[in-house]
Structures are given as structure tokens and as C-alpha cells.
Amino acid sequence: MSADHLLPTATTARVREAVAALLRERWATALWSLGALTGATAVGLATAAILGRVVDAVVAGTGPEALVVPVVALVAVAVVSGAGNALGIAGVARLGEDVAAELRERFVDRALRLPLERVELAGSGDLTSRVTGDVTAVTRSVRDAFPQLAQAVLTIVLTLGALALLDWRFLLAALLSAPVQVIALRRYQRGAAPVYDEHRRAVGARQHRLLGTISGARTVRALGLAEAHTRGVGTSSQRAADLAVAGTGVATRFFGNLNLAEFVGLSGVLVAGFWLVDRNMATIGTATAAALYFQNLFNPINTALGLADEAQKARASLARMIGVCDLPAEPEPGPLSAPDGSLVLSGVGHSYRPGSPVLSGVDLKVRPGERVALVGASGAGKSTLAKLVAGVHPAAEGSLRVGGFDLAGTGPAAARQAVTLVSQEVHVFAGPLAEDLRLARPEAGEADLLRALETVGARAWVESLPDGVATVVGAGRHALTPARAQQLALARLVLADRPIAVLDEATADAGSAGARELEEAASRALDGRTGLVVAHRLTQAAEADRVVVLDGGRVVESGPHEELVAADGPYAALWRAWSDRR
């Protein structure tokens, strides 16, 4: 995966613009939440002033009765401030959760509508790291950091005002910490932003390598590439770990500088208080209140600046999410007639990188209802041809008519209205098995589901499950073998009932024991529709109406199995090698 193919990342200005637009849509919630927090914070600031009065009363030697009113006032302040803070924080949290939820929905919606070629070029790791790690980072920040930040900013602003009301010199003393904080924040932002951005990219690259190595483990072992892939995974993992450690170092230096700022500011307030009291320009109670205000001030300052670390992580993740949200969705084709089962390829070519064609000058006609097997050595272009027909990639050269649609005019999305693609990589969605099947036809009743399962030979084992088609399957629930998961994919093909089916090594993970059973299931699923089968086992080719042999991205042979074996050409050599291995 090259950096050029990675999905884009939004600029900081674009992130701010997108978040502001989301907040504007919820201005009412923002307004009453801010009002509740402001009122609660203002009431809470009375605590320091009341305690200052208590100190003055004690210094003056007044009796205990003078403390009754301050104590009652402190209780009232605690109750009112606590209730207001609870209401305001709940509102801010709700606001943040609503924004995060809409952003997640937009992200998933756009990710599902991206051109499949764009997603494939970026690699599964880049997209999955955004769906998982980036979404989690943003959600965590919204849930935890956003309410704290809102409360901290309000407390800072109102406390500075209270210090100024006590005596403007206390405010000046407290502001001695500001230059240290500003310098610390600027250094942190300069150091943290590139580190966190690069770390998120490194995590995506690591995810891509891991997924590619695990999903292609059999090929990696067969080609003796295990050591090279292990080194690649180790290198990408080390890169991500090094960047994580670098980010921790930047954050540690930042928090150390904040502690220095606290020392400077508190020292200034104490010196100012001593000077003012010594000259009878302020009472001991006033100086006490100023020190308490500073303590109340510095905690939210530390909170706000400390959240800069979380904000940088969230901003990096937001930029990656918004970068996907801003991508243009795949255009939907206009009104189309009902597709038929025909395939016509004329001079079709395709390449994933300039100067390295995977397919060249492919001519192929498939009649409605005909079953064609694609065979050839690894890298011959079989899967690429299957993906062109299924609308995953547009053809770079030539013309491609699928189901009667000219994809040059309608775009590859039209192909998916005529074609159902079943690949080797099958996903079982977590939830009731029936809902997994209804992805292909949402309105299907239980009788429809059972008929589709019967077609692919899966009804018996499905009905033996604890709750039949209502059994919850998927991650962490009832586990399905690869062969059974593939049967569900074939059942979805039957339910979708499109005229053309493309099977891209759809029986490869069955294992030798269940291979024949799964091949029979695939054969029954193809009944009545045009089938293009990338044959993992040549027994599938032998049963097809026609075999098309690819070599170096070109069609080198085409015809029925028996004729090609008798011709003693490339296919016959493949058949002999296959037969000797069985």
C-alpha cells in the first residue's frame, strides 16, 4: 500500500468548519447547557469569598454566632452549584454524543458509498483503522474530555473576573503563570500535531500489513514469504510503537511545564497577598480568598491545557474521519431497464499501476445462463476480470457490457444491479442468522430463507441450531466453520436472485473434506443464472459449460473441458498437474 493510495485526511481548518456546522445545528442544546454551567460556576465562586469572610471574622475575634450565616451560605452554594453543574454537564455530554453520533453515521454512510476501487486501492487496513481506532478516539474524547473542557473554560473566565473584583493586583500576580503556560502550549502543539498525525497513519499501515498477512497466510507460506512478511509486520509495528512513545514524551514535557507555571503563579499570589496585607490594603480574609481563587483557577487551567493532549489525538482522528466523509460518493446510475444475463467484453484491459497491465485485450462473450470457468496460474488476471464484471473496478481499456448495461456510460455501480459477487472472503455479521440472510433481500420471509438454505444444502444444519434461523451468529456468539459461512453467502446469492453470479474462489476455504459438498452447493446456487467462476479446483472447470484460460492477463484458450484436454494445450497441462496432485 503506497501513501498515494491512502484515503485522504482533512485539514485542520476543514475539521473546525465541519465541527462548527454540526454544533450550529444544535444551538438550543448548546445554549441552555452553557447557561446552566455558567450559572453553576458563578455560584460556586462564592465559596472562596465566603471563606474569606470567615477568616476575617475569626481574626476579628467575633463569636461563633457570626459563622452561622456563612455556613448556611456555603451549604446553599454547594447545593445550587452541584445541581447546575450536573444539569450543564449532562447537556454538554448530550450535545457531544449527538455530534459524535451524526459524525459516525456520516462516516459509515460515506464509507459504504465509496467507489469500491478506491477502497481496494487504499487497502482494508486504512479504512478499518478509521472505523475502529479513530471512531473510538473521537467518541472517548466527546464523552470524557468535551464536558470537562467546557466547564474548565467557564471556570477560568469567571475566576479571573472574581480575582479582579478582589483587587486588580491579585489578578496581575496570577497572570504571571500565563507566559509559562503559553510557551508550554505552543511547544506542545508544534511537537504533538505531527507526531499524532503520523502515529494514526502508522497504525493504519500496521493494520493493513496485519490483515494482508493473516488473510493471505496460505499464499505467504506456499511462496516461502513468511520471514519477509514477519519482518514487514515487525517494522510497521515498531514504527507505530516508536511514534506512540514519542507522543508520550511530548505530553510528559508539557505537563512538567504546567507544574512550573502553577508554582510561578501561586508564588506571585502569595507575595502579592503578603504585600497588600502588610500595608493594610487588603485583609487576611481577602488574601485567603485570592489564594483560594487561584487554586480554583489553576485546576481548570491544568484541565484545559491537559486536555490539549486528548484534543490533539481527537483532532488527528477527526481529520481522518472527515477526510472520508468529504470524498465524493459513487454516482448512482439513472433509471435502468431490467438486467439480463449477458456478458460482453471487448478489448478489456486493466492495471493497478502504470506500466504493469494485469489484463490486456480480453474479448469474452457469455450467453445468458451459460456457466464459464476462469482458470490460470496465480497472477494471470482471473480475480481482476471477475472484479471488473462485478463492478468493483472500472475497465481501464475496452468496453464492458454487463447484464445489457454498457458500463462506460452507466458506471460500475450498474453492474451490481445485475451481478452478485461471492468471494473467498466471507463475513458473517453478528446477529440472528435470519438477519444475516436478509441482507440480500430484506423483505424475505422465513419460508424464503429456508428455501434458499435448502438450495445450498444448509437447511438441515441451520434447523439443528439452538434457535434455528433465529440463532445469533458472528463474533463472540455461535461460531460457524468457513464452509458453513460460505454456504450462507451462497444462500444470500440465491435470495438476491440477480441474473449473473460471479464466484471468485468461493469454495477455496472449504478444505478437502467439505470441498465437494460446497462445490455442489455453488452449482445449485448458479442454476438458472449466468455464472462466472474463478475456479480454485479444476473439478469446477470440468463441470462448466466453457473454460477460459488466462495467462499473463490474456485469454489463451477457450472451450469445453473435453475439447481443451484433447487439444493438449495450456489447459491440458493444468489438468494433468491437478489430476496428479489429487
Describe the structure.
- The chain has 582 residues and is α/β, with parallel strands linked by helices.
- It is built from 21 helices and twelve strands.
- Strands 6-9-10-3-11-12 form a six-stranded mixed beta sheet, sandwiched between helices. The protein has a four-stranded antiparallel beta sheet with strand order 2-1-4-5. A two-stranded antiparallel ribbon has the order 7-8.
- Strand 1 (343-351) and strand 2 (357-366) form a beta hairpin.
- The chain is elongated and about 115 Å long.
- The mean pLDDT is 81.
Biggest sheet features: 6 strands, mixed
CATH architecture of the largest domain: Up-down Bundle
Give the structural class: alpha/beta
Describe the strand arrangement of the main beta sheet, using strand numbers: 6-9-10-3-11-12
Q: What percentage of amino acids are in beta strands?
A: 5-15%
Q: Give the number of domains.
A: 2
CATH homology-level superfamily of the largest domain: ABC transporter type 1, transmembrane domain
Determine Rg (CA atoms, Å): 34 Å
Total number of β-strand segments?
12
CATH fold assignment of the largest domain: ABC transporter transmembrane region fold
Shape: elongated
Q: Treating each run of at least 4 consecutive H or I residues as one helix, how many helices?
A: 21
| Mean pLDDT across residues | 81
